[in-house]
Predict the structure.
Amino acid sequence: MHVRRTGRAREKRHVKKSRRRDSADRSVSPAIAGARCLPELRSSKETMTANQDTLHMIAKMYFGSLLYGTATPESDTDIKGIFLPSKEQVLLGTIPKNVSYTTKMDVAAKNTREDVDVEIYSLHYFIDLACAGETVALDMLHAPQEMIIQDSPIWREIVANREKFYTKNLKAFIVYARRQAAKYGIKGSRLSDARGVITFLSQFEPELALRAVWEELPVLEHVYKRCFRKPPRSAT
């Protein structure tokens, strides 16, 4: 006997399906939950402006200081993710490399602990990064379970075969290491030079004018002295 489904029955079935999909997501902090549907979307390099909720997510995880165990109470929240491109994007060749979101209104301002930055890679681009041995991809592949916000059978299969991305070609890692060394090495030497100047000045009275010890002021790698000359008087 054929029974026609009523609107109420269809609605109940829709609710059950929604609950099953929601159960796949792991519980996350309120800040991260808010990041899933951010009120403001900033375009990525590919200028994609679709809402994050329209993406077919494969995985999402904490990244940055949270992943590396260096977060402080003032640290912001970084999230990385991977999405599966749609059939239309594949057929039209319009797959974006990544999509970026942020809760920060002023992009020039420094992030605060309330800020959430989200970057989501397309599956194609993520595989390219992993094959090239890029650090970001390898870190995502080795993220511990407690850092995972959302996963899927596809992501679990990729992680189970992550050793296939290991390579003896360390070009990408060397470039990353040099970039980090240049960034933090210069910063450290600048701090050291600044500390040297402060140590030198601390032996004098605070009221002493800088010009009185200008000639003795140390010249270091990042400390320079310029001699300012008075402009010549104009001829009258």
